[in-house]
Specification:
With 525 residues, the protein is α/β, with parallel strands linked by helices. The protein has 14 helices and 16 strands. The protein has 3 domains: 2-237 and 352-410, FAD/NAD(P)-binding domain, CATH 3.50.50.60; 245-346, Flavocytochrome C3, Chain A, domain 1; 430-480 and 482-504, Fumarate reductase/succinate dehydrogenase flavoprotein-like, C-terminal domain (Methane Monooxygenase Hydroxylase, Chain G, domain 1, Up-down Bundle). The chain is globular, with a radius of gyration of 22 Å.
Length: 525
């Protein structure tokens, strides 16, 4: 069964829906999402979206903050582009109806987060991502040029490989013609042919045991592009969020927004000491990689399971008004953060690397674009500055629409692509194998490829993951397609890329910290 669309968008977060809305002016758009339209990483974003809006802030300050956080590995041309285009893209969101908070005088209530030298974070209370997601979904659902396919899982990108041509990583010209997509409810696989394909699949946090990401964040886009011989980079830079609510039984981990520290909350160890000043002069508002390693070190020194985030010295009414979501969630767990300190731990949050793209979001595979967290634009370098992810998504989505719409009329459908070849049988006991293998992957990555790494840990992780890779590929080839087997396969691909790139990085920089390589200072221009 074949379906044809001008633009095929895989993913329904801020990157995918922003692209879909603007692309709909130039052709038919199909948005596929493996869950419901609102089940995205975007929806879980609390803090906000960064942009220069008022004095004394300016572009140069935002650029420098981003470069410093990225530890010398950012592409400065990309940083300047994103920072300078950010205000216009924010206005696009406002025009769509995103309700960013304002002060009594009508100006936007700008927050400050770790690594930022000025107040430049627009937010909607502490549910910014949800406000953006709901606004975009309403617009998409009412757009007659956009067709939505919920509970549809992209299995594989279509290239010359599916026409019988051998495609190697060194191939001079790979083209993308769409994707094989499984209807998870109808249990069929359709061939989606497209003129342009967009990967906007979000994060990969579930490669770790503990993550802020929803269960759907399994690195599907990165894995698909890697298998299609696309270029992947910087996967060693996995950002762990410093403050998530400590609850070993809860998944995903509940994120305690960085804006709370920007508001004045401070980190303390179990002895009640404000420890961050021992690690960085910026204290609790240092960049995330520094804060995470500091917390990790404090926990290891004292043998504690968590540290504290203390808001009790702050004005209660203002706290409740600015952070109602965090307040209500903590209250449900028996914590009144106006009176009680919040137990927090770091956990996997964001991938700074991914599918390498140019200034227009295009990959090295022609007709294929990657946006949002699945992409590697050069903005984040070795460590993402807080609240730069949402703005990156809308800036690159806008540029990708401009670039792809200018050539859409010259691109044809590849009708010769064969339909999906149904093979294999599924046995009841195989689900047990998938579940167990998933736990093993997450254990390997958490224990050996976490906040602090070493050559020995990475080597051990690679040996163990290779065993799981062989077992899973064998199971995949003899099984009917299911979401769980595809996700496991993708997570193993992603884990392999993280380990491989971490092994090649012979230095400690940004989010990649190895006890075998001392940290060295880098000059930021």
């Amino acid at each position: 069964m074949k379906k044809r669309t001008d633009f095929l968008v895989i993913g329904s977060g801020i990157a995918g829906l922003s692209f879909a809305l603007k692309a709909s002016a130039f052709g038919r758009v199909a948005v596929i999402t493996k869950s419901t339209l609102d089940n995205t990483n975007t929806r879980y974003a609390q803090g906000g979206i960064a942009a220069v809006f008022t004095e004394p802030d300016n572009f140069e300050k935002h650029i420098r903050d981003t470069l410093i956080a990225g530890d010398g590995l950012c592409n400065e041309k990309v940083v300047r582009m994103v920072v300078q285009e950010a205000p216009e893209r924010i206005k696009d969101l406002i025009d769509l109806g995103v309700p960013f908070d304002k002060r009594n005088d009508g100006s936007y209530d700008l927050a400050k987060e770790g690594g930022h030298t000025e107040h430049r974070i627009l937010h909607a209370k502490d549910k910014t991502g949800e406000a953006i997601q709901q606004t975009l979904m309403m617009r998409v659902r009412n757009n007659p040029n956009i067709e939505i396919f919920e509970n549809h899982f992209a299995i594989e990108l279509l290239t010359q490989h599916h026409l019988g041509e051998e495609v190697k990583r060194s191939h001079p010209s790979i083209n993308c013609y769409g994707a094989y997509v499984a209807d998870l409810k109808g249990q069929t696989v359709a061939t989606f042919l497209s003129r342009v394909t967009v990967i906007a699949t979000g994060g990969l946090g579930n490669v770790y045991l503990s993550t802020t990401n929803p269960e759907i964040a399994t690195g599907d886009g990165v894995a698909m592009v890697y298998r299609a011989k696309g270029t992947i980079e910087n996967m060693e830079f996995i950002q762990f969020h410093p403050t998530t609510l400590y609850d070993p039984e809860k998944r995903p981990s509940f994120l305690i927004t960085e804006a709370l520290r920007g508001y004045g909350a401070v980190l303390k160890n179990m002895r009640g000491e404000k420890f961050m000043s021992r690690y960085d002069s910026r204290g609790s508002l240092a960049p995330r990689d520094i804060v995470v390693r500091a917390i990790d070190n404090e926990m290891k020194i004292w043998g504690d399971d968590h540290v504290w985030l203390d808001c009790t010295h702050l004005e209660p009414e203002g706290l409740r008004d600015h952070f109602p979501n965090v307040y209500e969630h903590c209250l449900q767990r028996g914590i009144d953060f106006t009176k009680d300190m919040i137990p927090v731990v770091p956990c996997a949050h964001y991938s700074c690397g991914g599918i390498k793209v140019d200034l227009n979001g295009q990959t090295n595979i022609d007709r294929l674009y990657a946006l949002g967290e699945a992409s590697s634009t050069g903005l984040h370098g070795a460590n993402r500055l807080a609240s730069n992810s949402l703005i990156e998504a809308v800036v690159f989505s806008h540029r990708a629409v401009i670039h792809s719409s200018g050539r859409i009329g010259k691109l044809d459908f590849k009708e010769e692509i064969p339909d999906w070849d149904f093979k294999g049988t599924t046995h009841l006991e195989e689900m047990v194998l998938i579940t167990q293998s998933l736990k093993e992957v997450q254990m390997i990555m958490s224990n050996y490829v976490g906040i602090v790494r070493s050559n020995l840990r990475l080597e051990r992780a690679m040996v163990r993951l290779e065993i799981l890779y062989k077992e899973t590929e064998s199971l995949y080839k003899r099984s009917l397609i299911s979401q769980k087997i595809c996700e496991l396969r993708n997570l193993i691909n992603v884990g392999y890329l993280i380990i491989k790139m971490a092994m090649k990085r012979k230095e400690s920089i940004g989010l990649h910290y190895s006890i075998d390589y001392p940290k060295r200072q880098r000059e930021i221009g």
